[in-house]
Task: structure prediction
Amino acid sequence: MRSGFFAGLLLATVSATAAFAQGAPIKLADVAELSGGGATVGNNWKNGIDLAIEEINAKGGVLGRKLEVTHADSQSNPGVARAQVQKALDNEPYVLLGPGYSGSVKVTSPLAAEAGIAQIMGGEAAELTQGGNKFLFRTSFGQQSSMPKVAKYINDELKAKSVAVVWVNNDFGKGGRDVITKEFAKYNIKVAADLSTEAGQADFAADVSKIKAAAPDAVFIYLNEEESARILKELKRQAVTVPLMGETTLVGQKVVELAGDAANGARGHVGLTTDAPVDLVKAFREKFVKKYNYVPDHNGLKGYLAIYMIKATTDKMGKVDPKAFADTLHGLTIKAANEPGILMDVTFDEKGDIDRQGFLVEIVEGKQVVKQVLPKLN
Amino acid sequence: MTINGKYWRIALGIAVIAALIIVPMNFNRYGLYILSQWAVMTIAAMGLNLTLGYAGQVSLAQGAFVGIGAYTAAIMTTQGLPLIAALGVAIVLCFAIGWILGYPALRVQHHYLAFVTLAFSTLAFLVFRNEDWLTKGIYGISGIPRPNVLGFATNRPLPFYYFCLGSLAIVSLAMWWLIRSPWGRAFVALRENPVRALSLGIDTRRYTLMAFAIGSALGGVAGTLYAPLTQYIDPVPFNLSLSLDLLMMVIVGGSGFFFGPFLGAMIAVLLPEWLRFTQGYYLMLYAVAVMLLLIYSPTGILGILDRYLAERRTKAASALRAVAKSRLETAP
Amino acid sequence: MTAVLEVTNVKKSFGGIKAVDGISFDVQEGEILGLIGPNGCGKSTLFNCILGQLAPTDGEVKVDGKVVTGLRPSELNRLGVSRTFQLLQVFPKLSVRENLILAGQEHQGNMMSRLFGPSDAGLSAAADQMIGFFKLDHLATEAAGGLSYGQQKLLDAAMAFMGGPRLVLLDEPAGGVNLTMLGDLKERLAAINREKRATFVVIEHNMEFVMSLCTRVMVMAEGKLLAMGTPAEVRANPAVIEAYLGH
Amino acid sequence: MSNLLDLLVAGLATGAIYALVAVGFTLLWQTSQTINFAQGEFVMLPAFLMLAVMHAGAPFWLAIILGILLSLLLLGLGFKLLLVDPMLRHGVLPLAIATMALAIGMKEAVKQFFSAEASPFPSIVPAGDVSILGRVISLQSLGVLALAIAVVIGLTLLLNRTSIGHQMQATAQNPTVARIIGVPVERMILLTFLINAFLVALASLLITPIYLAKFSSGEVLGQAAFIAAIVGGFNQVRGAIAGGLLIGVVDNLAAAYVSTQYRAAVPMVLLIVIILFRPQGLLGRPEERTV
Result:
């Protein structure tokens, strides 16, 4: 037993060969939530990555070299994520991809920074990019960029003075809740009810009756897909008629599919959506559905974009240089006209946050309708 | 056991210990991390093995005790207190809570006990997550420092691994002492036949509570090592699934065998590595393997080994007896 | 002579069924009292009530003049009351010596000395003496589970004596033991009774065993005391013959 | 006050689901000392079996029939023959641990062979609402409640009025004696496994339209059902029903009046209190301990 295990470990060490030899494939490492509570997130992210790599390799790769990725499972557990990232870094990848959970990003990003390898991740918690880490990049809006837009909309368009906030009690939900409550304070919007819910919660009757009792002008819902669908159904059943506002997930295709009629009228800010009125995004969605037979959520898009970020950055450098990668990506603007795989124009700032256009959508008769396009800032 | 067998076992033991010290010197950071994780999980599983394997009390709360230990270490060391102080607090805390949690074990057995401890596990998770003022809630505690041991900094992976290995060695020696002491004998009696144990003057209540308390305290010890190992903790790793994982480790390795947790933790920590070629199927295969193992041998892998050795011994003994008998019969 | 055990009006019912229905008797120091009766007459239940394994519905039990009803079996054992069970109750995975040390260890020192003191609680010599006494010498390091039935029965009895008890309750010590072994067992019990002034209460179906070992015999039927006397008296009692030979 | 009434109704509807799942759980315990830690997953799986049949092109009604048959085969017969029978001789605890492994295996299998994503599931009850005494109640909730009541009545009749029921009760109380008086004990035990499989399939059919089909949806349900069974009384069918309804109501009231952050704690505390002070459960018979 023991000797077998040592042999295995030694083998893993030895197999880290010269990764950057000319013509050899460019090695990428992905660590994602392939099992456990974040399996939906991680598998979408992984499929997006695989799709992009397949496309790029079919067209001859990056600078004439193929891309090659290894996927590792964090089991949605930060401890395991740390081990897997450590392992990935020991093999000296060109770029590290993932994880998707903010907690897992938090424990792994110091490792990548220490190794001097850029990490392109899916986490959305505001604080991730506030710590001065020079190697960490987002693929989507952080909560600190999306929530102000939601709060502004609730204030300007919905003219709500009191809002009930329903959030899922994990790092994703709590993060969003904390940022939006701060934003509400700026507009003097009162939080009429502050409802924590559990991931996987099935029964929202009590939560909705609390919302009813609080009689807010609007409800802000920040939950995962399934829970979003369930609460929408319950809100409809208990005849709550005030506007329902969300961010990305609430108005996603999956929620509409699961909630049916109950999703009608729900609104939300969406940074990345496969329903965006952008031709390239629609084309992506078709390709994805063709390959995997389901409609991806925004995590599928994030994985896909991560790979094209690598391609655009490498093309810009003109060489495969892991040390210069992060510097090049900071301040870089990638235009969809030049690199169609990036789908929409995007700019990365010095913190690794992104700037891209966003959308305000509403569900009308089971379809996402874009009510407003929020342009890219610069 | 013959003298030869004894020497052979001592030699094997020394070889394994030497290998654990020398071989990892060339390991990369990941290898060291995995080995450190193995040492930490082994300590937690040893605690559960005492409660479950020796004393026969099922617990689904070991993960929660690892959590209590980890939070104690994280909170205290980020305040600048030394890890050794945190260790002391964690042991006392887990021992006391384990003692209290043992009380239901005096009233109920088996499945009821499983559910009491399961409930405790859930409650502990909720406290970790909801009490922001203490645990920083779902955001977790980051920047947990690694300790200085006898003047040596353990920031680098190799020294920290030796720190974990040293802790494991100390815990193993203490455990070895415990199970060879009259207490260990009383624990086994408790598991095998509590009625008879009572009639021999064994205070089964006190020993049951002790088994719970000591087992839980070891969970706390594992937790105080886990925190500086990952240097970041949040409530998620300490949910029910850690308790289930630890239970599986004890069962798979061999519950009630001293080396069971070592083996079980090794399989659990390294199995994803071995079964990587199976991609997403590995947990499924693991589950099936555990079921098959339990059907074949409810005392785990070491149980199979033990049975094999016992059979050989019985065969040898009955052969001897047959020889002796034939001599008697042929005697004039 | 003082009464080592005094049982006064002990009753035990399960639901509506009276398993033990008002039994009183006492046992003098050094006595060997036989307890016989048909199956299901409440003998073992009475044992369990005396020993605290079952709480009696009513009545009182005294050991050496001290009321012990309500004490736990372990506490009683440490007061010097020991027992064996009808079915074999040795610890099969422990060796013969370990079984005996286990049986004696709670009578030594305290919790702390049992943790930090020597592994055998200082009982190796005593255990080996007991092993010698019961003629199990060649088996000292064997796992108890590997012994023959008769040997395990001897061990079971030996364990009851490890704590140096004043009073021992034996539940069918002769059941399933072959003739040679039976002789050994009887002789050993008699020897302990003689040498250590230990007092016995013995449940047994083997009449020959009871009649030759015991100084006094008590007969139970349907939860009640039917007869009490010397072996000869009991043997001649018509009510006893009636109960044994059927209605 | 109207709020409270709403919560009670919602709690009863959820509780009826827990009760359905808990009933089979107690049946298995009574006849064969099986603690099924995979009971929640047993409810999760039939929905996927039905979905798989539908994906193959079959209409919904056929999928229901085949789904129930497959459940009887896999979760009834297969579970008993392949796991319980070979494990039972090892005792209660190893079997319980084996079912924990089974739960993991089932979740992973569904995730790998079906999907990690939630899927919608058609409802056999029309999706409308009815208004009773001014309360809006969904037909789905009413359906679950009605079925739970039907199951209690049906099971009670079966157990108390039929000879099979008497034989099952005899098996549950004392298999050895039952065997001596000529009860086909093995067949009775198998029957309880089949009844359990049927109940979980029914529960799956009713719950999945509300809870959605997802590999992990059994976790919450299984735990709630265990708690319901213990709180109500492990050895009584009506105990499991009462426990289920109670847990459903308590959970909803806790969310409304205690704290949403700690709502999951309240049933757990209830469980601990019950085990400490009334281990046989609210309606259970005490199990005579031989010690």
In short: Residues 144-270 of chain A form a domain with the Rossmann fold fold (CATH 3.40.50.2300). The first strand of chain A starts at residue 26 and ends at 32.
